Amino acid sequence: MSLDKQQKRTTIYDLAELAGTSASAVSVVLNGNWKKRRISKQLAEKIMRIAEEQGYALNMQASLLRRDKSHIIGMIVPKYDNRYFGSIVELFETMARDKGLFPLITCTRRDPALEIEAARAMLSYQVDCVIATGATDPDRITELCAAAGVRTINLDLPGKLAPSVISDNFAGARELTRRILASCQQRFGSMEPLMFIGGRGGDHNTMERLRGFRQAHADHGIDIGDDRVIACGYAPEKAQNALQERAASGLPFSRGMFVNSTITLEGVLRWVRLAGPVGEQDVALGCFDYDPLVALLGDNIEMVRQDVPAMLARMFELIERGSFEPSVSEIPPVLR
């Protein structure tokens, strides 16, 4: 069935007539520039109300004019493919909605250019706050957002220009290393220097975990050389290739290994099971990350679970208090 006449679309001239003002004033309000043109809030709200009543198609900026805040909160995350970042995203969505906020989330794959592109896109949606999670350059994101009058908080990795909420990587790594050493003592009859595998040597979390790793060895009077540290990145294939290269070079292996994420753990286990010089039951592993499925692999893997609920609770506390001065909140992780 067709209509002889299509319904006439509402124009800004129709809205101007209904609001008792000029078409230019309507255009300014709908384009989001009414404050700069000294149009009263009362008139802007009236135009917006009439536009909605008439079914006028609003752009994103115009739809936000009726309130001082957009109640949109953005989050940039580096990865979706491990339980840690997945749990951050899932709980962030739940907590944001419970607080009357609309969560806007995007994955940037640890690409600095994508991080900036994502921040710019979020600013175009007039977000109230941007959460930079695991960002490669959080300060650059903060500077970009600050220029637009938008606050930022860093999560997982710290920055210098905005508040940061992170795990206590040093204390968590120190305790995890102690447990791996104790496991070696129990299973093999002696403590020997462990190997540290995964992560980027220049990022804050890896440096702090390495500091805890070394301190735990020092606590037991064990010397640990730089050759025991393989900061090969996080990807499984990089860990597997690094271990294969070490085996080919003839360098010694430890029967205890500190693995810097469950992503890296995948590569370590693949190497141990398929090509390693040690058997599956001849290595004690510890992982600074958590996945309950790992428990099915046996009792020889210790894990650290970063306390995502406490981290996000602290983050929202800072937002609600309006605390955006640079600071670092370290949240103790949980040992499995």
UniProtKB/TrEMBL annotation:
Domain spans labelled HTH lacI-type: 10-67
SUPFAM superfamilies: lambda repressor-like DNA-binding domains, Periplasmic binding protein-like I
CDD domains (UniProt xref): PBP1_FruR
Alphabetic keyword roster: DNA-binding, Transcription, Transcription regulation
Gene3D superfamilies on file: 3.40.50.2300, lambda repressor-like DNA-binding domains
InterPro entries noted in UniProt: HTH_LacI, Lambda_DNA-bd_dom_sf, Peripla_BP_I, SBP_2_dom
One Gene Ontology MF term: transcription cis-regulatory region binding
Alphabetized Pfam families for the sequence: LacI, Peripla_BP_4
PANTHER family named in the record: HTH-TYPE TRANSCRIPTIONAL REGULATOR GALS, LACI-RELATED TRANSCRIPTIONAL REPRESSOR
Protein name: LacI family fructose operon transcriptional repressor
Organism: Rhizobium metallidurans
